[in-house]
Design goal:
This protein is mainly α and 88 residues long. It has one domain. The chain has 3 helices and no strands. The model has no long low-confidence stretch (mean pLDDT 86). Keywords: Cell membrane, Membrane, Transmembrane, Transmembrane helix.
Length: 88
C-alpha cells in the first residue's frame, strides 16, 4: 500500500512538472499542488480517453503517461483561465 502511494506521488510530481514546463506563463504552485495537478491530470486523461474511445459508461480511471500529461495540461490551462486577472 505504501509503495502504491509513493508511486502515485512520484508519478504526479513528474507529470505535474512536465505540464507546468509545457504551458507558458507563471503558475504559482507548490510541490504538493504540482503533485495533485499530475494525479488529477491522470484521471482527467483517463476520462477523456474513455470518451474518445466511444465508451458509453463514464468510468473514471487513471490514464497512461501521455494521457496524464495531456490531462494535466488541460487542467492547468483551465485553472489559469479561471484565475487570470482582468486588466481594465
Amino acid at each position: 500500500m505504501l509503495i502504491t502511494i509513493l508511486t502515485w506521488i512520484v508519478f504526479g510530481l513528474v507529470v505535474g512538472f512536465i505540464a507546468r514546463a509545457v504551458v507558458p506563463g507563471s503558475q504559482p504552485m507548490s510541490i504538493p499542488g504540482t503533485i495533485l495537478l499530475g494525479v488529477a491530470g491522470s484521471f482527467v486523461g483517463g476520462l477523456v480517453g474513455n470518451l474518445l474511445a466511444g465508451n458509453t459508461a463514464l468510468q473514471v480511471h487513471a490514464a497512461g503517461f501521455i494521457g496524464s500529461v495531456l490531462g494535466a495540461i488541460l487542467l492547468l490551462v483551465l485553472m489559469m483561465f479561471a484565475t487570470r486577472r482582468r486588466l481594465a
